[in-house]
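Sequence only, no structure available. Ideas?
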Amino acid sequence: MAATTLAAERISINDHTVDEARDTPFTKSSTLILRAADGEETALPAELQEILLRTLHSIASDGEVTIGRMPDHLTSTVAADVLGVSRPTLMKWARIGEIDSFKVGSHTRFRRDEVLRVRALRARERAVAHEALREFDSVHEELLEN
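Reply:
I predicted one. Tokens follow.
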């Protein structure tokens, strides 16, 4: 098969589409339903709903979105980028067992699902820390006043 036939479809959106995305009411608890021409409704699987809702949110907030498929196994450079850390930090985490890795020859690789698990864990930890800081600020407002 020629390489050109494997290229992904590129979808362009215009300002009207961005405005419609901004005007569409949705929340994280929204459910997406697929309605056929005959009226039959099918709820989309949870993971697909999350992707589509995040896509809608991205279009509404930034006016653009990029969707791609991540390979099953990632290099240390790619995994570090996904996690938002330096490669040396990622390699330290691998050495101390904070993230699972494996070797291909002399190169360290990371499973996509493991990298995404660690990314979600770090996001939850940041959210908890942020909430604790907000709570501290509200309890100690007098200390923060000028």
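The beta strands are 33-35, 41-43, 73-75, 102-104, 107-111.
Hope that gets you unstuck.
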